[in-house]
Amino acid sequence: MHGNVDVDISIEEELEGKVFELYKKTPHREFKSHCQFIKAESLRDAEDKAMVIDDEYWKTKSVRPVTPEYVWDTFIELHHSYSIAKHILDLNDIASD
Could you list the pLDDT tens digit for every one of the 97 residues in the chain? Predict the structure, then answer.
């Protein structure tokens, strides 16, 4: 279980080693912020997919392998932030979950 979400462990096992994160990097190549997740068979495949998204991604972004647990944790954080922003902007009636 991740947060309040029940997760089928076989899904996590299936994704192990096949999930990568495209992220913004600092000038020192350190993690700055999340951009998106990429499902791929290898790091090279993930980098190729990142090139399709943005052919100059390597100037300001990088790709790294991540665990399925990290994906869930990031999802929960982003969903929480999304829910708060939606409430602050009074979009509750406009954009339902």
Answer: 455 455 556 777 888 889 999 999 999 989 999 999 999 999 999 999 999 989 999 999 999 999 999 999 999 999 999 999 999 998 876 655 5
> Which distant-in-sequence residues (6+ apart) come within 8 Å of 55 by Cβ?
none
Task: Provide the residue ranges of all domains of the chain, joining segments of one domain with +.
Answer: 9-67
Query: Global pTM?
Result: 0.74
Contact 26, 72 (CB under 8 A): no
Q: Which of 22, 58, 60 has the alpha carbon at shortest distance from 40?
A: 22
